[in-house]
Amino acid sequence: MAVIPGKQVTMEPMNNEHQYSPLPESRRRTIVRLVFLIYFLLIFEGALRKWVWPEGNKFIFFIRDPFVLLIYFLSWGHLIKRNSSRLLSFSMNLAVFSLLLPIIQTSLDWSSLLFAVYGWRSYFLYIPLIFIIRDVFQKKDFELIIRISLWLTIPVSYLVFHQSLAPSSDPINQGFGSAPGEIFYSMLTGGMVRAQGTFTSITGQVMFIGSSLAMLLSSWILPPKERPVGRIVLVLASVAIISMIGVSGSRSAFVLAFIVLLFTQLSSLFWLRRRESMRAFVFPILIVMVGAWIIVSFYTTQFETLAARVVSLSSENTGYLSIGEIVLRPWGDIEGAWYAMFIAPVFGYGLGTGGNAGMGFGGVIAEGEWSRHIIDLGPFLGLAFIVLRVAFVWVMGREAVFATRSSNNPLPLYLFGFVAVVMFNGQLIGQGAGNGYGWIFSGLCMASSKIAMSKKSS
Q1: Contact present, 81 and 135 (Cβ < 8 Å)
Q2: Rounded CA separation 319/328 (Å)
Q3: pLDDT tens across 18-68, in order?
């Protein structure tokens, strides 16, 4: 309060922390429902493309986008809160600068304007959704999304088991396209299908397994009275997730599960309650033992086929064991991005041309995500986007560790164990399911940290 003779003047605070008005509860619930809808479409849009409307598969690929835009409309002027705002500002500034690229790239005949719009959408459209999810989700919303996700693992595990046994031409794998292999491709290993579940790629199924495992473990570690689901559902979901890993035919499914289990054990260092700390340390060991027994006993054919593929790939890749190849893969991506810095034009070859969709447009295909950014955006903006990804991992990890350590809630750290792999250099931009899971679960990870800390403070 500043006093002037004869007049009283109220001085406004210098910061802008409270410039956004509170979000009405009815609108908050509407936004949460839309987030749930986007999440379910992410899981089931592949089923729509394969079995319901294969002719419209390209349209269905973008089916989530209108609901994302509707969320932005509903939250305009009410959100975003101050924490992590610099990260959002950097993201939006980068998105605005990148709007100039399609104009330059199309003028040089490096890319079509339509494809450039698709590329910009993959890079930037979902970023504000992260912060909106962080702000609107409450504890009851998380309990519901965990409950539904774990229930879904049971029928999906039944589906992927039959997919792994059926031929690639079977509609359960191929879908009902007009010709075998024309729309959806079943990825084979040793004559056996790599089960894709409700998705059109193995990447989506791997993401479904990893995210479900994180939610499952967080539920098991909590005391029974705090769990969002009962013991019977947890047991059924545990068997279902182990079964999905066993029939996946994918090394990535095993590696992602290993990383989530590793973060479960690491969380035992942060727990204040001794019983939950011991459970977090011992439970991953039990899961591995039980999982190994189930896979070897009931999914022998699928496991032996995957093992044969691993041995074959290891012998082809300079003799590295598979685990060595996986450990060295991030370094290979960094090295590839370094070389791309010297061959990519200043303004890049074209937004989206380095991804999977670029194959249909004669794009310059990049194997690694970091190399893809340099090819798409050019050395300067591409490097800036890589920095953005690393910054997201740093911010989410710092918040998750602090929240788990302070509140005895393991969910933030477990979700971080899943999404950090995607955000650092996973298939965030080059693949549709990875794009959806990366952005949505970054928001869920931040939201879980916020909820855990608010519970602690209260």
Answers
A1: yes
A2: 13
A3: 344 578 899 999 999 999 999 999 999 999 999 999 888 888 989 999 999
**How far apart (Å, rounded) are the C-alpha atoms in residues 437 and 429?**
11
Torsion of CA 359, 361, 365, 369, to 10 degrees: -90
Q: Cis omega (within 30 of 0) on the bond before 80?
A: yes
Our measurement of the distance from residue 98's CA atom to the centroid of its chain's CA atoms, rounded to an integer in Å, reads 23
Listed residue (290, 200, 299, 309) closest to 243, CA to CA: 299
How many CB atoms are located within 10 Å of the residue 342 CB?
A: 8
Q: Which residue has the tokens 């689901």?
A: 229
Q: How many Cβ atoms are within 10 Å of 134's Cβ, its own excluded?
A: 25
Q: In what helix (H) or strand (E) does residue 188 lie, and over which residues does it extend?
A: strand 188-189
- Summarised one tens digit per residue, pLDDT across range 75-113 is 887 765 544 478 888 999 999 988 888 777 777 666 677
Q: Which residue type does 206 have?
A: V
Q: Which residues pair with 4 in a beta bridge?
A: 7
- Domain limits, the chain: 25-457
Model confidence pLDDT, tens digit, residues 286-333: 999 999 999 888 888 777 777 766 665 554 554 444 444 455 556 667
Range 360-380 burial, b when 16+ CB lie within 10 A, else e: eeebbebebbbbbbbbbbbbe
Q: Locate 407 and state its tokens.
A: 């509140």
Q: What DSSP designation does 192 have? A: E
- Between the two ends of the chain, the Cα-to-Cα distance in Å is 30
Q: Which helix (H) or strand (E) holds 3?
A: strand 2-4
Measure the CA dihedral 337/124/34/184, to 10°. Answer: -50
Confidence label for 181 from pLDDT (cuts 50, 70 and 90): very low
Q: Are 425 and 369 in contact (CB under 8 A)?
A: yes
| Distance (Å, whole) CA 50 – CA 197 | 11
The pTM of the full predicted model, rounded to 2 decimals, is: 0.88
Instruction: Compute the distance between CA of residue 366 and CA of residue 350 in angstroms, rounded to an integer.
Output: 12
**Cα 343–chain centre separation:** 30
- In angstroms, the CA 92 to CA 227 distance is 37
Q: How many CB atoms lie within 10 A of CB 107?
A: 11
Rg (CA), the chain: 23
Count Cβ neighbours within 10 Å for each residue of 381-394 and write b for 16 or more, e otherwise: bbbbbbebbebbbe
